[in-house]
Amino acid sequence: MKRIISPINLREDRLPPGQHWTERLIILGISDPPETDLKSYRLKIFGEVEEPVVLTWDDILSFEKVELVADFHCVTRWSCKDVVWRGFHVNELKKLVKINPNVKSVMIHSLDGYTTNVPIEYFFDEDVIFAYELFNGPIPADNGYPLRLIVPKLYSWKSAKFVAGIEFMLEDRPGFWEQRGYHILGDPWKEQRYSD
């Protein structure tokens, strides 16, 4: 299994400004975890692609499995070191769909109605994966079961839980928290917590 260590773990300023280390991931969310049956679960890839694709859970498990070790930075000022996620790298999507070269952003859609936008250059980064395991087992429901996007270089509201859809977009548009005053990007080292 390929192992990826996020470059953020190697920064001299590893802990972003205004953050403090915690020993574990703290559970936050907009709703209770949705009930999910893996037999009926589907992941939709749509928007600015030549042909939309719908994946089953078996399809997801057929992708090359990777392990990501990355610090996790929450906008509420806590950070957790060396969190271990396993799943598939976002580059697998490029093998499935032909993406419009003018795409600027991706909107992630979750089973509970949550959405978040990620600029395309952050989405297709070396340390971004869709995770279905956390440490030594399946992702617990509170942490995003069955599938969670992990974007280590941005605050963790961008690491959407319960992922059900990946929408490629020609223009950036705000997701759930971005519509409620959170920063459109969310870089922890620039303290981009709110839109001002």
TrEMBL record:
<dbReference type="InterPro" id="IPR036374">
    <property type="entry name" value="OxRdtase_Mopterin-bd_sf"/>
</dbReference>
<feature type="domain" description="Oxidoreductase molybdopterin-binding">
    <location>
        <begin position="33"/>
        <end position="177"/>
    </location>
</feature>
<dbReference type="InterPro" id="IPR000572">
    <property type="entry name" value="OxRdtase_Mopterin-bd_dom"/>
</dbReference>
<dbReference type="Pfam" id="PF00174">
    <property type="entry name" value="Oxidored_molyb"/>
</dbReference>
<protein>
    <submittedName>
        <fullName>Oxidoreductase, molybdopterin binding protein</fullName>
    </submittedName>
</protein>
